[in-house]
Amino acid sequence: MPEADIIIIGGGIAGASTAMYLSQLGHRVTVLERGEIAGEASGVNAGGLGGIGWGAVPDLQAYLTMGSLEEFKTLQLDHGYDLEFRQSGTLQSIHTPQQYEYARDRMLRLTSQGYALELLTPREAMSIEPGANPELPGYLYLPLRGQADPEKTTRAFASAAANAGASILTGQNVIAMGQTGNGSWHIRTSQLAGDGEFRAGTLVLAAGAWCRPVGELMGIKIPIAPVRGQMWATASMAPQVFHTIGSVESAYDWSSQNGPDSSAPPELTHQGETRLTRHLYGRQTKGGEIIFGGDRQLADYDVNPEFDGIEVNRVHAMEVLPFLRDLPIQRTWAGTMPFSLDGKPIIGKIPLRDNLFIVGGLASSGFGRGPMAGKLLAEYIQSGHRPSVLNEADPARCVSPAT
Ligand SMILES: Cc1cc2nc3c(=O)[nH]c(=O)nc-3n(C[C@H](O)[C@H](O)[C@H](O)COP(=O)(O)OP(=O)(O)OC[C@H]3O[C@@H](n4cnc5c(N)ncnc54)[C@H](O)[C@@H]3O)c2cc1C
Question: Which of 34, 69, 191, 217 to mutate to test the pocket of ligand 1 (most atoms within 8 A of CB)?
Answer without folding.
Answer: 34
